[in-house]
Design brief:
Length: about 250
């Protein structure tokens, strides 16, 4: 089996449409739409939830690949990753139901594979840093914001369901921090490379200024500083993330 598996080899039912993220953004801009769905309308909330659903699918596959790709890793590491597959599979089910709740369906919007392609590090330490701290940190931002928006528009089903998933993502971040430390014990260079990999992912998902520190209603993706603290990110890390989002602003 290839290691890591190519993004276009992920098995999908026919109803899923796969496209490059850049292509989707360009087509949207050509139609006068924002490149990334904000949360200002029921349609944009549904599109965001669809994007999360395919993200959960790739998170499930990614954690499964981590079990498979690192057979020499400590047993507890493999167990944590296997537990994460289980969590992510429940998240997929929850988001599939939420899509129905929002009158949507799987395949209504294209699936981009940017999350998967970002997750394909060759080193286990880099992978948990990038996926469990970079991408799951992003999930904390996105879910925390969605909980607030759902509360504001009076949708307790969306609010509660996303809050329950968020609780799991916090544990995934913590797991990433634990294994980043354990796997790189006594190897400062390996740790430096893993953190660099994570920072590249963070920078990429600032999406040129789309993710920012700000009010949930005012920015497309708001940084969940409190939830990130709960997930074990240090004040210094949160500060650094906010600074990089300011640097990568496009306007
Ligand atoms: Fe998840
Ligand atoms: Fe997760």
């Amino acid at each position: 089996m290839d290691r890591p598996i190519a993004y276009d080899k992920l098995a999908r039912e026919d109803r899923f449409v796969r496209m490059r993220a850049r292509e989707v953004a360009e087509l949207k801009v050509a139609q006068g739409l924002p490149p990334f769905p904000d949360l200002s309308s029921p349609e944009s909330i549904k599109e965001r939830v669809h994007g999360i659903m395919v993200g959960e699918l790739q998170a499930m596959e990614g954690a499964g690949r981590t079990v498979c790709d690192f057979p020499d890793a400590p047993w507890e590491f493999t167990m944590d990753m296997a537990r994460q597959v289980w969590d992510e599979s429940r998240h997929v089910e929850i988001y599939l139901r939420l899509l129905e709740h929002l009158n949507g369906y799987a395949g209504e919007f294209p699936e981009t594979t940017i999350l998967w392609r970002c997750a394909c590090a060759e080193d286990a330490a880099a992978r948990v840093a990038g996926v469990n701290r970079g991408l799951e940190g992003l999930a904390c931002d996105v879910f925390n914001q969605l909980v607030h928006i759902a509360r504001k528009i009076g949708d307790p089903i969306l609010e509660r369901a996303v809050d329950f998933v968020l609780a799991d993502e916090i544990t995934h971040v913590r797991m990433g921090s634990k294994w980043l430390t354990k796997l790189t014990e006594g190897d400062a260079e390996r740790r430096r490379r893993a953190i660099e990999f994570q920072e590249n992912i963070d920078e990429r998902f600032n999406l040129g200024g789309v993710r920012r520190d700000g009010d949930h209603d005012a920015v497309s993706i708001s940084i969940a500083t409190d939830v990130r603290r709960m997930a074990g990110f240090t004040e210094e890390e949160i500060e650094r993330l906010i600074k990089t989002t300011q640097r990568s602003q496009v306007y």
